[in-house]
Amino acid sequence: MMGDLGLSAAVSRRLCSSWVAAALSLGLLACAGTERDRLDDQSTMTILFPGWDERSLIPAWNLQPKYLLFRTLVEPDANGELVGVLARSWEHSEDQLTWTYHLRSDVRWHDGEPFTAHDIAFTVELLSHPEVLRAAPGSRTVSVVDDSTVIITYGSYRARVFGHFFNVYLPRHLLQHLDPAEFGKWDWKAEFWPPVGYGPFRYVRDVPRTMVELEANPAWFAGRPRVDRIIIKFGGDPVIEFEAGNVDVSASLDPRMALKLAARPGLEYCLGPLWFPSAIYWNHGHFALSDVRVRRALALAIDRRELADVRGYPGDIALPDVMLTPDQRSAFQVDIRSDDWEWPEDVPTPLPHDVAAAASLLDEAGWHDGDGDGVREKGDAKLRFDLLTNVARVTESVVLQEQFRRVGAQVEIQTIDRSVGRLRFKAGDFDAALSGIAPRPYGGPMFEALAGDPAGNPERAIGYFNARLDSLVAAEKDWNGDLQEESWRQLQSIISEDVAVTFLLPELRATVFRRRVRGLSENGCRLWGAERLWIEEEE
């Protein structure tokens, strides 16, 4: 039975495949569970989603459980190739920014209304409305040809990626009477609850901030899901919930937590990489950090394998220290174990951990420990800086602090709330900042930090200027195909050469599940495809 943890001592570690699949798998099945007797029902899957509540099912918010009720136009297969979901076919312009989608005619909202191109247009226009701005201005424009044909023009390739793999849609027939100018005040629980979706599962009931019950949608175009019922449980400690036999699955977990759980009999886990690495953003206006030799020396001082051990990563995982291009990311995420993954020739070899080389660079830059106190100085200035971080990164920050100390740099850790930290980052009020405070790589804010606001504001938080990089980012909307890959390679080279940002580790999250949950391997460990999973008790 589900509550019995003594099935087997073997632990399997599987890795997610494509970067998009991995990004989506972070939260989609990271959900819930209810009373223990449900776990004896082979038609019910209970999923723990720590820290969220039922609002994560509202499609206007960027939270992953919604993909059980809603789906995207297209999805990636195990090789990262597009397969249709809402769209049965499509064509695109030569620059791959204007896409014509031909929609399936057999997709219906859970209240029976047909899903049409007008729902897509309503959602795109709403989220781009000046009073809403859930999408960046100009990132998407839309036109309806007929009920089953819609044309979307994306403002950049990043907008296209999010449009394909992350954006879901709202029911025009239920929400069109609401005023977009009041979007921030919409009472979703009054206007859109229970949530009406169009995906493979539909709402049954909820207990606020505790659980939501979903059932298989018999009208799902791909066939009725193999699991009859999903219980999404909010809050709770995964260790306690698994020990008590309350849940089948918990995702979006720290790898250290996953390792702890997977050591228990009957549990397995999947380890999935996100498409962005953690990073340190240097303030190039800082007296010491303005010198590329100092930034490179600090990068050489970092023992990234030690950081990976602290984060609970497997010892054989590859650790690229650059922003990977789209093609490189796809290759990396198919198998990120270094024994099986060969570094592409065009990927810069990671900087080694080399304290001697770091010391030599600092000497060359004029930083010496003349008074023997362990901290280098140059004139009257000490090699000292603050590292901005948040609670989730404290352990990583302490390890970095010690590694920098070994080369004569004194680091003070400032742990602050993310929202406050991001305001300080945007204002340039920091010396160095870790991901979680600084923007994530590959996102618009990261480009703005490096190259300024594309709308014309030249200010950039880190005080970094490189004309070649600025030109590349300004032309981002024209990136496509081979040009996209080549542009990323040039960005990669510039950032590495200038040590504009120091990338640390690929971000990994884990999904832990009971062995009775089947289909994860066949599904590439892509947890958003819950309709393709099934429950099967072992003999």
What does this structure look like?
By secondary structure, the chain is an alpha+beta fold. It has three domains: 1-65 and 199-266 and 515-539, 3-Layer(aba) Sandwich (D-Maltodextrin-Binding Protein, domain 2); 70-184, Dipeptide-binding Protein, Domain 1 (Dipeptide-binding Protein, domain 1), CATH 3.90.76.10; 274-507, Dipeptide-binding Protein, domain 3 (Roll), CATH 3.10.105.10. 26% of the residues lie in helices and 22% in strands. It has 16 helices and 21 strands. The strands form five sheets. Strands 1, 2, 9, 10, 11, 12, 13, 16, 17, 18 and 19 form an eleven-stranded mixed sheet that branches. A hairpin with a 2-residue loop joins strand 7 (140-146) and strand 8 (149-154). The longest helix has 18 residues, at 481-498. The chain is globular. The termini are close together.
What's the helix and strand layout?
Elements: E1 13-15, H1 19-25, E2 44-49, E3 74-76, E4 82-84, E5 87-92, E6 98-103, H2 117-127, E7 140-146, E8 149-154, H3 157-165, H4 172-175, H5 188-191, E9 201-207, E10 211-216, E11 229-234, H6 238-243, E12 249-253, H7 255-262, E13 267-282, H8 292-301, H9 304-310, H10 326-334, H11 355-364, E14 377-378, E15 381-382, E16 384-389, H12 394-405, E17 410-415, H13 418-426, E18 432-434, H14 444-451, H15 467-474, H16 481-498, E19 501-514, E20 517-518, E21 534-535
Parallel strand pairs: 1-13, 2-11, 2-12, 16-17, 16-18
Antiparallel strand pairs: 3-4, 5-6, 6-8, 7-8, 9-10, 10-11, 12-19, 13-18, 13-19, 14-15, 20-21
Helix pairs in contact: 8-11
